[in-house]
Specification:
The protein is an alpha+beta fold. Helix content is 23%, strand content 20%. The protein has a single domain, classed as HIT family, subunit A. A five-stranded antiparallel sheet has the order 1-2-3-5-4, with helices on one face. The N and C termini lie far apart (58 Å). Bound molecules: adenosine monophosphate and zinc ion. The site of zinc ion (ZN) has 5 residues, from helix 1. The site of adenosine monophosphate has 12 residues, from loops.
């Protein structure tokens, strides 16, 4: 399968792996958007959130728990952090193997996008 993250899982492409267990791995994002920016991915190839099945619920919950554990290890669990799943084009997904972004170490902005008011108020 021609999947970048499966290649990282199979060690065909190098990555800075910071956590590994039987279900998931986590590695540093190549283009970090925060002092800590890593990705938690399942060993199972799932293309997008839309392909998650009932039997994957525990796996996805585990991904979230691993992100929280890494936040604890990195020392920003109390100050806070951002976790993100991007889905498909409008979600900004570029790699089609689900991954949970963990960003921490600085305050995050919110919301990510604010639509400009296009309609003038006339009345
Ligand atoms: P997304 O846009 O949500 O699909 O996120 C994909 C993420 O993968 C981006 O933040 C990229 O910077 C990151 N990325 C792409 N290639 C690599 C790589 N070889 N190693 C680590 N992270 C990568
Ligand atoms: Zn994959």
């Amino acid at each position: 399968m021609d999947c970048l993250f499966c290649k990282i899982l199979n060690k065909e492409i190098p990555a800075q792996i910071i956590y590994e267990d039987e279900k998931v791995i986590a590695f540093n994002d190549i283009n970090p958007q925060a002092p800590t920016h890593c990705l938690v991915i399942p060993r199972k190839h799932i293309a997008t959130l839309n392909q998650i099945e009932d039997t994957d619920q525990e796996l996805v919950g585990h991904m979230v728990q691993v992100a929280a554990k890494i936040a604890d290890q990195q020392g920003f669990d109390q100050t806070g952090y951002r976790t993100v799943f991007n889905c498909n084009e409008h979600g900004g997904q570029t790699v089609y193997h689900i991954h949970l972004h963990l960003l921490g170490g600085k305050p995050m902005g919110w919301p990510p996008y604010q639509e400009k008011l296009k309609t003038a108020v006339t009345q």
